Here is the input.
Amino acid sequence: MRAVRREDAAGVAVLLGQLGYPTDGAAVRERLTYWLGDEASVLLGADDDGQLVGVAALHVCPILEVTGKFGRVVALVVDDRYRGQGVGRSLMAEMEKRAYAAGCILMEVTSGGHRESAHRFYAGLGYQDAHERSKRFTKFLPGDTKEPV
Here is the structure.
């Protein structure tokens, strides 16, 4: 595991494309500008001999209702050729370690309804589907025409 760097933009773009979010290196480089400067966020990569083969993004949020914070994995993707080899498991273990060190008492990850293999992966790590306890509502602000994530 290592920190993602600006020069990883093209590799991150390839991985995001595999996840179903096509983009290019220039757009990712722009996003890295705010990601890498955010003290409440962690962006890690899995590397195989200099090639970026996985990325995980974590954001830490304070909780008002109880004492503590929660960690939200906002992205996890492993290169198609490396899936099933423990890369995602290693990235998630590091995300949990970082979240705990930041004072998190809860981890959260969302996954599109069509990603059944990802759902099995998260369940295998001990995550529970909370859709019966809570709902997720989203709204794009004026001027944004992108599809909901």
